[in-house]
Protein: THO complex subunit 7A
Amino acid sequence: ASKIRKISGRGETTGGTAHYAFGALEDDIIIKHRLLTRTTTTRGEPPLKKLQKKFTAFALETEKDGENYADCERLARVFLQELKTFELPLVKTKAVIDANVREKENFNELNDEINRRIVEAQEDIEGLKRMLEESKVERKHKEECEMIRKLIAAQPPRSETQKVIDELEREIAALEAENTASSRTLELRKKQFALLLHVVDELQNTIEEEQRSMVEEMRMAAIYENKNTVEDAAGGSAEAMAID
Structure:
């Protein structure tokens, strides 16, 4: 892991934002370099450099002339020991990498399983939503049925209602019979009244005819009387003239 240092007073961030000594890209480069060189701390000599020195010392010793087999063997053992020391963290790192790969695969499988369960849960939620809507509609229908049932229960029994209907039908039949009788009586009265009007009209015509006849007779009588009066007057004058 990289050694990250926060630049802030007394271990607190400034202005609510953390400030780091290295950027994200530089931090990745440092981590990669430390993994390659097996440098896990800033103290001491890097392991790769120490291994290089051991190998260089062994190589230089082998190039010397003379009886230096013991020194070469000693330096070889030192180099191999340093190589094992350097190799051990690599083996550990490889084991960690393999474990991380397996963990990643397990994580991917777990992620796929979680996604599958999420999809199933969403489908279950949609199904439950549909069931909820259906339950709401069914509950509404039940409430309407209950309301209708209460209204029906509040009404009188069918037998009483039928009695009332029968009584009303009898009254309607009686009223219809009375209406029919009244209509016949009214029709008869209309005919009688029409006959009476006709008789009155005939009587009035007769009276008017008689009145006209009486007037004509009186007029004729007056004319006849006037004629007689004139004749009598004329006769008296002739007799007077004859006497003279």
